[in-house]
Design goal:
The structure is a single chain. Helix content is 48%, strand content 15%. It is an alpha/beta fold and 420 residues long. The strands form two sheets. Strands 3-2-1-4-5-6-7 form a seven-stranded parallel beta sheet, with helices on both faces. Strands 10-11-9-8-12-13-14 form a seven-stranded parallel beta sheet, sandwiched between helices. α4 (66-75) crosses α19 (405-419), α6 (112-122) crosses α7 (136-145) and α11 (214-227) crosses α14.
Amino acid sequence: MISRLLYSILLVLALPYLLLHLLWRGRRQRGYLSHRGERFGFYVQRSDKPVIWLHAVSVGETRAIVPLVQSLLARYPGYQILLTHTTPTGRDTSQQLFGDTVWRVYLPYDYAFAVGRFLRQFRPALGMLMETEIWPNLIAACRREGVPVMLVNARLSERSARRYRRFAGLTRQSLAGLSAIAAQTAADAERLRALGGQQISVMGNLKFDCLPPPMQLEQGRQWRVAIGEQRPVWLAASTREDEEAIVLDAWQQLQPSPALLIMVPRHPQRFDEVADLLEKRGIRYQRRSSGEPVAAATQVWLGDSMGELFAYYRATDVALIGGSLLPLGGQNPIEAAAVGCPAIIGQHVWNFAEVSRAALVSGAAVQVGNVGELAQAVDRLLHDQTRREQMRLAALAFAQSHQGATARLLELVASYLTMR
């Protein structure tokens, strides 16, 4: 059984690796080399107002908290909202979404001295960790300093639960240190409770409350008009390593076809890599970043932009949800559903098992297992307008029926802020 003391010792021993890893990531993404002091608890901001702190690791988590942050800003004008992130893309997304209405810094590595500095610097009245951020030293320090900290929008796949069970004692101690856990689903709550979680309630998924921005919907509509309403369009959204090759194999099975493929890699550092793949295959493509209208001869439009996924969903007839064709755990189909975009998902969806299952049951999505099935599903949906319309309506109903998590979480937040 690993104790927190042993965990802390192992973390100290891992410091050289962490520094090398930071430098290595910085070679591909320069943002990792900025604000390095924050990774170890050194900050310049200090608020005269009480602080509400939310931790959102990267892009997906940051987008998920938009309705929550907007509600907190409106309800608690006397508080400073602080967002912490782990990745530069998460931090950049925060800047795009919230500008100067909130503060943003990197959450320090889980060293006792670093998290102690973080808490002393900001003295948060309440902390919220998004999804599955269980950091033993951070949680212990919050408890010691009297800072209530909650795990919100909490999800835990069976695969992750097995991993945490290997460190049962440390996991139990950390979960017990949380003031509350707001789980996405009953299954998530059950797995967290079995690992030692307490004060658990099921509140739903915050991402259902993220409504498509009207400007992005209009942008997507304009894209589609420019592409041509009669030209079939399909989207490979949030694709990850090696999935683009599978998507292109399926796309080539559709030939000859006038269908335009929009390909949007999940991570911006892979945009050039995917462009190289398209060039090696001799595929005529354009980059979104060029700003030029999609030409009739263009076969693939490379979505090398951040923060426009709703617009891409609006511009397409059917979308593949990436991360699910290979054993990567899948990405979330909620954004596609919110726009009313029929979705195709692969077999590997353990990161979003419950929401993927619900999307399939509702008729908002179909599932495929290999390249051939993907090509068949795309071809069938592109040529069956009636089926697409049925799936579009099912997707909208699915998204709307699961809203309300933000309001439920705000009630829990209010109970802790009132106590202070």
